[in-house]
Design goal:
This protein has a 5-stranded parallel sheet, with helices on both faces. Strands 6-7 form a two-stranded antiparallel ribbon. A hairpin with a 3-residue loop joins strand 6 (396-399) and strand 7 (403-406). The radius of gyration is 28 Å and the shape is globular. By secondary structure, it is an alpha/beta fold. The model is unreliable at 25-30 (pLDDT under 50). The protein has helices at 2-11, 25-29, 39-55, 71-80, 102-111, 121-131, 139-148, 163-168, 170-178, 196-208, 223-240, 246-250, 257-267, 272-293, 319-340, 343-350, 359-372, 380-392, 410-417, 424-430, and strands at 59-64, 87-93, 154-160, 187-193, 214-217, 396-399, 403-406.
Length: 431
């Protein structure tokens, strides 16, 4: 069993080295061409690169979205799959430098394919702008250069975590984003940021010098996209750990277990990093429970050829085990958010367990709850603000314009207010 758990753990770990220039032998033998949940973004990025190459000039693109939304993974996966004889990918994480201006030195080093360089910041910048990205004195020299460098590779420069440059070091960012516009440039530049607002603030300054930069936005993963990623990773598990047959593979997770986890992650606005944390914690808990039940004399060693065998109707990861993990990850946050609400909003929570939940039915139930504990009513406008605060705390969401969906359970509500005397009558009604 240990080998199966280790295989799952490994395949639900984040890729730590996403630099497209670093290839392990195994990677080169079998290219990773799938980015589950981000297929549309992958195609858009590929089209942007293809169109830029056809145009014969450089170009740039902003990519933005919350952390863990697949921005870097999608782009670097694409960069790894570009023809090596036509493209030169360069990946730079802007957070890695104690001085942001050292970005110039790192770009120079990678352009020159150097293991290291003693060039300073200013010298590196001068060399970059003298030999790679510059304008020509006249049209004749431009045509001569383009003819001589017709087969020169297109540089794909990926600047990750550029948020750090926007405020205090924007001059560096603006200078680099000018490079694709130079006559000599065969540069396609991608800037990856988390904050859309910071990106949008920079656009007017670029527009003043005639640089028009598009934005490709990555939204948080949906429930369906998270489930697709889970299923893809499980496919990778089965490529490495061969169970007896397809029926045995179906017994790894109890039906609807991954759907439950995906839904809870999506409702809580979690990124894919948190999603993988949940699965790895599930693996740990499974092993802990196995150890608790094992005989002291049992050996945990297993042969590389040993394969787990499931009994009929037996599931390796059950719904109950998954619920235990989800409670561990999210219950404290939900209960804490409930307690932080104003008292009127807390009464709204008690009013929300209805067969059909809309603003109208919720307000009617709220009035009833106030009468039970003899508490003054809010006006409808203030009631709307209370509902908004509940939504912003991740306890409800609005669907289809009017329908309200709860993101908490009766048990969690009881847990939050079991020591609050004012709500005793309402707690009794819930039980």
């Amino acid at each position: 069993m240990q080998r199966l758990l280790d295989t799952i753990n490994k395949n639900f770990s984040l890729q730590t080295d996403i630099d497209p220039t670093k290839h392990k032998k195994k990677d080169s033998e079998e290219k990773i061409t799938k980015v589950p949940g981000r297929e549309t973004h992958y195609r858009k990025l590929r089209a942007f690169i293809d169109n830029t190459v056809k145009s014969g000039v450089g170009d740039s693109l902003y990519i933005c979205g919350p952390p863990g939304a697949g921005k870097s993974l999608t782009l670097t996966t694409l960069a790894k799959n570009l023809p090596k004889n036509k493209f030169k990918p360069i990946y730079i994480n802007c957070m890695q430098f104690d001085q942001p201006a050292k970005i110039y030195t790192e770009i120079y080093r990678k352009l020159e394919n150097l293991v290291s360089t003693k060039k300073g910041i200013n010298e590196s910048l001068e060399l970059i702008e003298s030999y790679y990205f510059f304008d020509f004195e006249n049209e004749e020299k431009r045509l001569e250069y383009l003819k001589d460098n017709e087969k020169k590779k297109t540089t794909i420069l990926i600047l990750d975590e550029i948020d750090i440059l926007f405020e205090k070091f924007s001059n560096i960012l603006y200078r680099i984003f000018e490079w694709p516009t130079k006559h000599s440039s065969k540069l396609i530049l991608f800037g990856i940021a988390n904050e859309l607002g910071l990106v949008q603030k920079s656009l007017p300054r670029f527009a003043k010098v005639g640089i028009d930069i598009e934005i490709l936005h990555f939204k948080p993963y949906t429930e369906e996209e998270i489930l697709k990623i889970f299923n893809h990773r499980i496919e990778l598990v089965f490529k490495e750990y061969k169970l007896k047959d397809a029926e045995q593979e179906k017994q790894l997770f109890q039906p609807q277990t991954l759907e439950l986890i995906s839904k809870q992650l999506s409702l809580n606005g979690c990124d894919i990093r948190k999603a993988f944390d949940v699965i790895r914690r599930l693996v740990t808990l499974k092993f802990e429970k196995y150890i608790d039940k094992a005989d002291l004399n049992d050996s945990l060693e297993e042969s590389p050829t040993d394969v787990v065998q499931f009994e009929p109707d037996q599931y390796f990861f059950t719904m109950n085990l998954a619920q235990e993990i989800l409670d561990e990850f999210f219950e404290c946050k939900i209960v804490s958010n409930m307690k932080s609400l104003p008292i009127q909003a807390q009464i709204v929570l008690f009013s929300s367990f209805l067969p059909v939940l809309t603003y109208e039915t919720l307000y009617k139930s709220y009035k009833n709850q106030c009468s039970i504990i003899n508490f003054p009513l809010m006006e409808k406008a203030d009631f709307g603000l209370s509902v908004d605060s509940i939504i912003s705390n991740g306890l409800m969401k609005i669907e289809n314009g009017n329908k309200i969906t709860l993101l908490f359970s009766k048990e969690q509500l009881i847990s939050a207010f079991k020591s609050s005397q004012i709500f005793d009558p309402l707690l009794e009604e819930l039980k």
